[in-house]
Amino acid sequence: MSERASQARRAEQRGPREDAQRVRGVEVRSERREERSAVSDGRLRAVALGGGHGLHASLSALRQLTTDLTAIVTVADDGGSSGRIRSELGLLPPGDLRMALTALAGEDRDDAMWASVLQHRFGGHGALAGHPVGNLLISGLMDGFEDPLAALARVADLIGAVGRVLPMSPIPLDLVAEVDRLDPDDPARTRRIRGQSSIAATPGRVRSIRLLPPGAPACAAAVDAVRESDVVVLGPGSWFTSVIPHLLLRELGRAIATTRATVVVTVNLVPQAGETPDFSPLELLRVLQEHARDRGGLRIDAIVADVDSVPDPKGLHRFAHDIGARLVLSEVAADDSAARHDPARLAAAYRRAVQETEIEATEEGSRWR
């Protein structure tokens, strides 16, 4: 049997999850946990989705739990060095891919040196000003190989990466947002803003986001990674431009909706100017679920949040209880910055989220047998 046929057969055997049927949902989850109690023995298959500094944070934490790690990266960046490369060459924007690769770089001296080289940004005022070396290297390899996955694998080998990095789509994507102006008396209060960099820089409150082109394909390897994982992590990061877009691709959004993995959502430490300036953690979760409705919904097994970043812990506990999720409130911010996650603390929170969800599912499954 071919590999493609084998994958199709495995997907067919898995089938969609029936979240509306509580008994069946518990039975499926408990069976999955008994087959794959992987976090305690280092066999955890983890997938993290996002982009930029947020994805770098989740990868830096997850690599402390496993080496079987896949990063799935947004490809809608149209600003800075990535935007220039995308505009001039028509390639995938390399910046977020570079950030994910460096988060997974090996720890020996040569690996660290090459990771540092990838992050080095040219100064001056010439044609190369503002370009990181890694963006140029990744773009050169993608242009030469004509296969972004092969190019990323070569860079991963160069820096001894502990996992792999995949784009969410094999083609560059665009984002279109509906943004409300802050002035409620403005007759043209809601505006349509196109482009990730423009969305982030536009004052107001983002209402919704969508992807162009319509029906864009997902990276097949990314879809398979989600389907075969033990834990899927969404966030932290730019909520509308780095986290939510993964749910909007048809194949990828459906894979997230039907995966048997533990789905963990990491809420941001602080609101982000330009995207979520006044969003509470509860609002972040609600808007995430709203955008997932057209792709089969989003079941959340665990919510990870910093204990000092939640203004209404009781409200967040109620929300988690209502959707059947476990809330992990702990100190995950760095001591030197309330806006940055500490990798070791975040890793401990992820371990706790997965283990406690496994235990709960096994206990519920036993009661329903």
Describe this structure in words.
The N terminus is likely disordered. It is globular, with a radius of gyration of 20 Å. It is α/β, with parallel strands linked by helices. It is built from 16 helices and twelve strands. It has two domains: 209 residues, Rossmann fold; 84 residues, no CATH class.
Question: How much strand content do the residues show?
Answer: 15-25%
SSE sequence, one letter per element:
HHEHEHHHHHEEEHEHEHHHEHEHEEEH
Count of separate DSSP helical elements: 16
Mean of all residue-level pLDDT scores: 87
Q: What is the fold-level CATH name, i.e. the topology of the largest domain?
A: Rossmann fold
Major sheet details: 7 strands, parallel
What general outline do the C-alpha atoms trace?
A: globular
Q: How are the strands of the largest sheet arranged? A: 3-2-1-7-8-9-10
The CATH architecture assignment of the largest domain turns out to be 3-Layer(aba) Sandwich
How many β-strand runs? 12
Structural class: alpha/beta
Q: Unreliable segments (pLDDT under 50, ≥5 consecutive)?
A: 1-36
The helical percent reads: 40-55%
Radius of gyration: 20 Å
Distance between the termini: 35 Å
Main CATH class of the largest domain: Alpha Beta
Q: How many domains, as an integer?
A: 2
